[in-house]
Design goal:
Layout (H helix, E strand, L loop, with lengths): L2 H9 L19 H4 L10 H4 L2 H13 L3 E11 L5 E12 L5 E4 L1 H4 L2 E7 L5 E10 L4 E6 L1 H5 L7 E2 L10 E6 L7 E15 L5 E8 L11 E3 L4 E9 L7 E5 H14 L5 E2 L2 E7 L2 H7 L5 E8 L4 H5 L6 E5 L2 E2 L3 H10 L6 E7 L2 E7 L2 E2 L2
Parallel strand pairs: 7-12
Antiparallel strand pairs: 1-2, 1-4, 2-3, 3-6, 4-5, 5-6, 8-9, 8-11, 9-10, 10-13, 11-12, 12-13, 14-21, 15-16, 16-17, 17-18, 17-19, 19-20
């Protein structure tokens, strides 16, 4: 049998002139071929959802009522120097029944007017209660008339310390104004550090490949149970699949301080420094926990560091017993050190280890 005869024989078993029907209708196919196609009844899409799809669907149904679109109006100037109002926006999510919303600092910073669009379409005004550019987090509140018009659904907050690399991560927000857009991926890495808009380092950032775009900022990153595990904050362009969210544990701490004080109080000692390695012999001799430190390049006049006796060339290796491996470590430790209370600063001066009492002041 030649090729043409084979083609004709196979074609004779199939009626290509028959109308195409649904999967549950009889098709003019040979018994062997028909048996290889699953017979699915109409309306049985739910049965086809696999575990992954069900997890995403369920999580979205849980958290979507809490996600909001934030529209911001801030002061600006034209090229000619005339004042004008500029617009912007992002996402956020309700985390208390009385209308508190968590979002990014860069979404609402310097806003003159804030409007929030709820999941049910209501547009209500909001006011900023606290803003922390150093962690890129902010808390805003829906004004009372908006709360009294109907109930709000607060999102469930998870625990970012319990995350594992590879687990499901779902991002919900309003990229480019497309409300309630869902993207899904996995937790790509944990414990990342990210430079905030203020220049400070944000620690314990979650890396994910769930796609983020402008407008996603401030929206929730959730797990398969619909619990918020992070606040979406940044993406690296033009890279694909490298996006970041601030861990929800960091967000809880910052939000509590913003609600209490309206800002985060951070300590300041008044030095300019850079990260440098420490000679191995010195590390072994003093049994240091880190092999690098923060080299003091200059000391500000009248600063806590100058009053404590810190000199140019000193290498800071610890503050209040917490090891300092560099500038970023020093910034992080200063966030936890109490303001206007004496602390012990440990430095290396040449090969000598010194401890000096220092009284950090509040960052201005």
């Amino acid at each position: 049998m030649n090729v043409q005869e084979t083609r004709n024989t196979f074609s004779s078993h199939l009626d290509f002139s028959a109308p195409v029907g649904r999967a549950d209708e009889q098709q003019n196919l040979p018994d062997g071929i028909a048996a290889s196609f699953p017979q699915v009844s109409a309306g049985s899409d739910a049965a086809l959802l696999d575990a992954y799809s069900r997890a995403v669907t369920d999580a979205v149904e849980i958290v979507s009522p809490s996600v909001v679109n934030i529209e911001v109006h801030a002061a600006g100037r034209t090229r000619s120097g005339q004042e004008r109002e500029r617009g912007g926006g992002g996402s956020g999510f309700v985390f208390t029944p009385d209308g508190l919303i968590l979002t990014n600092s860069h979404v609402v910073h310097d806003a003159k007017r804030i409007e929030v669009t709820l999941a049910d379409g209501r547009r209500v005004p909001a006011t900023a209660l606290g803003d922390d550019p150093a962690s890129d987090l902010a808390v805003i509140r829906i004004e009372k008339p908006g709360v009294e018009e109907g109930g709000l659904t607060p999102a469930m907050l998870g625990d970012s310390q319990q995350l594992r690399v590879g687990q499901l991560a779902i991002a919900i927000g309003n990229p480019y104004g497309f409300q309630s857009t869902v993207t899904a991926g996995v937790v790509s890495a944990l414990g990342r550090s990210l430079r905030s808009y203020s220049g400070r380092l944000i620690d314990d950032v979650i890396q994910t490949d769930a796609a983020l775009n402008p407008g996603n900022s401030g929206g929730p990153l959730v797990d398969s149970a619909g619990r918020v595990i992070g606040v979406n904050t940044a993406t690296i362009l033009p890279a694909q699949g490298i996006c970041f969210a601030i861990g929800i544990n960091t967000a809880k701490f910052v939000a509590s301080r913003l609600l209490r004080d309206g800002r985060i109080r951070r300590s300041y000692i008044g030095v300019s420094a850079q990260t440098v390695p420490i000679h191995r012999r010195v590390v072994r001799f003093y049994d240091l926990r880190k092999e690098s430190g923060a080299l003091v390049l200059s000391v500000e006049d009248g600063s806590p560091a100058q009053r404590a006796g810190v000199r140019d060339g000193d290498v800071i290796i610890a503050l209040d017993g917490k090891p300092v491996a560099g500038v970023d470590d020093l910034q992080r430790v200063l966030t936890d050190v109490p303001v206007n209370i004496g602390s012990i600063l440990t430095v290396l001066r040449h090969t000598e280890r010194l401890e000096m009492r220092i009284v950090p002041e509040e960052t201005k």
